[in-house]
TrEMBL record:
GO terms for molecular function: ATP binding. This is histidine kinase. The keyword Protease does not apply. Pfam families: HATPase_c (PF02518), HisKA (PF00512), PAS (PF00989). Residues 342-559 form the Histidine kinase domain. The keyword Transport does not apply. Its EC number is 2.7.13.3. It comes from Sporolactobacillus mangiferae. It is found in: Membrane. SUPFAM superfamilies: ATPase domain of HSP90 chaperone/DNA topoisomerase II/histidine kinase, Homodimeric domain of signal transducing histidine kinase, PYP-like sensor domain (PAS domain). The lineage of its organism: Bacteria, Bacillati, Bacillota, Bacilli, Bacillales. It is an enzyme of class 2 (transferase). Gene3D superfamilies: 1.10.287.130, Histidine kinase-like ATPase, C-terminal domain (3.30.565.10), PAS domain (3.30.450.20). Keywords: ATP-binding, Kinase, Membrane, Nucleotide-binding, Phosphoprotein, Transferase, Transmembrane, Transmembrane helix, Two-component regulatory system.
Amino acid sequence: MIWIRWAFVLACLFFIVFVLNEVVQLALLHNDRLAMESRARTVEAIVVQKGTTVHTHELESVLGRYAKKERVRISVYNQNKKLSYSTGGEKETSLDRVMYANQSGDSFVYINALKTNGKTAGYVKLTGQKSVVVGLGMIYVFIIASGIVLLVYRDVLVHSYSRPIRFAARMAENLLEGSYNMIASEQVKRDSVLRLNLAMNRMSNVMHELNRSYSRQQDSMTTLIENIGNGLLFIDGVGRINYVNKTFKEDFQTQATHWELADYHEAVPYEEVRQMIDEVFRTKQKLVRQLQLPVHIERKHFDVSCAPILNKRRKVRGIVVVFHDISTIKNLENMRKDFVANVSHELKTPVTSLIGFTETLLDGACEDKEMEKQFLHIMLHEGRRLQSLINDLLELSKIERAHFAIQWEFVSLRNIAKSVVLMLKEKAAAKNIKLELTEGSEGVVSGDTFRIRQIMINLISNAIAYTPEHGTVTVSVREHDQKTDLVIADTGIGIEKEEIPRIFERFYRIDKARSRDSGGTGLGLAIVKHLVEAHEGQIHVKSTPGKGSTFTITFKKRHS
């Protein structure tokens, strides 16, 4: 409110001038009074003789000269306040007051008694020009004008500094918000403002460069952490999970959306990992262990490392948990150990049967045509089992080779499922099992027709093998935005929860007797798992013992 400030300042200036004028007038009045008192004493000395006022022509001449010299008019009154004589044309012949000293217009009037020996001999009235200060009005005008000029100069000065200061304040706020597009002018006359602008520009450039450097480092660190190849958990000093990297989410097949800022006791589902973190919090020492953890439908091996982050006072500020997936190495080790034993075990039964029945026939059983026919049927069955096992081993070996490749094309899951259901309809009917393909979408995905057919045959054959008579096997296709699900559900014997991570291992059987009787080799689901991974897909299993199992295979509509 500029006009209010101006009105206040002008009022103050006029008040100062008014007070100064009053002081000057009082000073002049006092000076005039002193001068009149001195003149009155002089007149008293001239006109008072022998206790009374004397009027002679000689005294009148003396008073006239004195009045002319002092530029005053002198009137003398007797003891009765009657005019005796006057040096000027005094009109008042008597006095109405005996003591008076004040201004009257442009004149100063002074009345006082003439005394001698302490007695009043008469009265004198002195009238003269009041004292004035020449040019006093000009001084007052100068004071007001000076005040106005100072106020204007002050406003100009403040304005010249306030604008760059306000600009600097806005620029600083923008810098704090991460905006560096404001530039202070370097074409200013005031040295202090120029220095401020130059400093702000330098600070903007430095902060911009620091921010860019920090962003580059942060991006590099984020990229490194996200793609380091190991799963990472960052836990703060109070046990909250601050960060979960991409590799961890992929290894453990979880989005971990609810993990951020959650307590690790509630979020981490593995008791062994929680115990390791607790121990590191307690001992403040790095801890490394190899753990086998169930991840969805598998059991994976991890080299887990927990390292504390300590401050200068050796207080735990946080913990870094690193999960190095060594499942491939462990599986390879186990495969090398178990392969010969498993293959030998699987080959032992059909080979033993073939040898045994052959020896029996050679010992004379061939003479009994009925027994010969029965033995030959058994030998044929065992031979086919042996052939199926060898074929599955060769197929699995082929899939695991480095140069194995998928023949990518757009295929219809529904069309493939129709042909597979038609092919296995007779096998299901032999057990009075209802095999059906539900109505649904076409399910066009990117994949290899022959390999997808192989996946369906293995899964549906398993479902028929593990479903009792009068059961149901249902095949359905469900489309989503970017993916399509192939769902195979049965009402079979089901799978125990702790067995689900192992069903994709080679030669692992849920019901070994049933599997061998049905001609299973124990390699079907291992082949399915490898083929699904080759298609960049995922396989999920839900099962309830005694009620059945549901296998869901997720295919991409477009491969990477």
